Amino acid sequence: MADTASREVTLAIGGESYVLVPSFGAVCGIEERIGTNLFQLGQRLESAQISAVELIDFAHACIAEAGYEVTRERLAELIVEAGTATVLAPLTEYCRIYIFGAQRESDVVAAETGDPNAPDSHPDSVQPNVRSEVRVNARGTRRERRDFAK
Questions:
Q1: HSE-CB for 83 with a 13 A CA cutoff
Q2: Alpha-carbon distance 85 to 70, whole Å?
């Protein structure tokens, strides 16, 4: 599950939840660990053309860079037990957030397809029963929060 507004991706596997936050430092560490750049890896993840070794290495690098401790061997067992699809989506979203930033999915689709009329892609689009709040902290980090009316 991803919270693109806060740039967080949660990888839930084996009864544990790992909160992964793509940052420049984390991505540099991950690229160093796996020996390839995140953009190319993200493309292969999105098309499910990634080897089991690459998938496990990438998942382990993300978890380790986030400060969690789990052995590569244990993580491999968890991925096999849960199925690779369980980790493909969150890891793909991790790459997407790093590459495109904290954008709405429709904005990313509009950017990828060149279609400015993609649903919800225009900044003036109105969503009923949704309240958005954008804050910028002292470090210049932008945080967006949305509340959906029930």
A1: 3
A2: 20
- Tokens at 124, concatenated: 């003036």
CB 13 within 8 A of CB 87: yes
Q: What is the pTM of this model?
A: 0.63
CA terminus-to-terminus distance, the chain: 21
Question: Can you give the pLDDT at residue 1?
Answer: 53
CB 11 within 8 A of CB 17: yes
CB of 32 closer than 8 Å to CB of 43: no
The Cα-based distances of 45 to 64, 92, 123, 129, 130 in angstroms read: 19, 6, 29, 35, 32
Helices (H), 47-104: 52-65, 72-82, 85-100
Q: In what order do the strands lie in the sheet with 2-3?
A: 2-3, 8-13, 16-20
Rounded to whole angstroms, how far apart are CA atoms 5 and 54?
Answer: 28
Joined together, the tokens standing for residue 77 give: 């067992």
Query: Over the stretch 15-48, which tens digit does the pLDDT of each residue have?
Result: 889 999 888 888 888 888 888 888 888 888 888 8
How high is the pLDDT of residue 121? 42
